[in-house]
Amino acid sequence: MVFDQDGKVTGIEEKPLHPKSDFAVTGLYFYDDQVVNIAREIRPSERGELEISDVNKCYLDMGRLEVSLMGRGYAWLDTGTHSSLLEASRFVEILERRQGLKIACPEEIAWRLGYIGDEQLEAIGSSMGKNGYGQYLLKILKKTSLHGPSDAFDLESQSLPVVSEGR
Question: Tens digit of pLDDT for each residue in 53-73?
Answer without folding.
Answer: 999 999 999 999 988 888 787
